[in-house]
Each structure stands twice: as C-alpha cells, then as structure tokens.
C-alpha cells in the first residue's frame, strides 16, 4: 500500500524522462495518430508515422482505444505537446529497438549503394 501511494505521488510530481519507455493506454485514436495516457495523468501523441516500423494506412489497423501499449518518450514539440513512439519499442518485451532499427537502416543503405555501384 505504501509503494502504491509512493508511485501515485511520484506520478503527479515527477516529470517523464526523454528516452525512457513507459507503459500506457490508448485513450483516443485520430486519423493522424493515437493519444496515449502514460506516466500518471500525462497524455501524449503517437503520430501515425511512429506507430509501427512499416507504413500504416489507418491508425485503427494498429491500435484501438483501451489498448495497453509501450511507448518511448521522444520529447515535446515547440508548443509543448508530448511526442511518443511505439515503433522503436518491442511491444512484447518493452525493449528499446532504436539501435537495432538504426543498424538495419544502415545495412539496407549500404546494400543499396553496393547494388547501384554494381550496375
């Protein structure tokens, strides 16, 4: 009970940290993304381009309201809106995939350059 109270108070007074992964709940879906409640009473936007590694046609193809998701806190935009990403987080384990995705992109680029050089 004390730990629950401590966590509740901490969620009110503490600030979310950029680069950290949090568990949240999808509270609203829009054409351009999904709003996720995370870190206590904070809501942030997962833009449609940050929902999955592959192209997403419709937000509701990936998430629906009430879904539990893992998000990475990317920061705030110039208007103070919270930016989140799901595509850089393994939704099963909560592992940060940023480095893996970067390495994969780099490998794809070098293969592309090699194939162009061989033409």
UniProtKB/TrEMBL annotation:
Sequence ranges assigned to domain S1 motif in this UniProt record: 19-87
Source species taxonomy: Bacteria, Pseudomonadati, Pseudomonadota, Alphaproteobacteria, Hyphomicrobiales
Pfam families: S1
GO molecular function: RNA binding
One biological process term in Gene Ontology: RNA stabilization
Region Disordered: start-end pairs: 93-119
CDD domains, alphabetized: S1_PNPase (cd04472)
Stretches with biased composition (Basic and acidic residues): 97-119
Domain of life: Bacteria
Species the sequence originates in: Methylobacterium aquaticum
Protein's UniProt name: S1 motif domain-containing protein
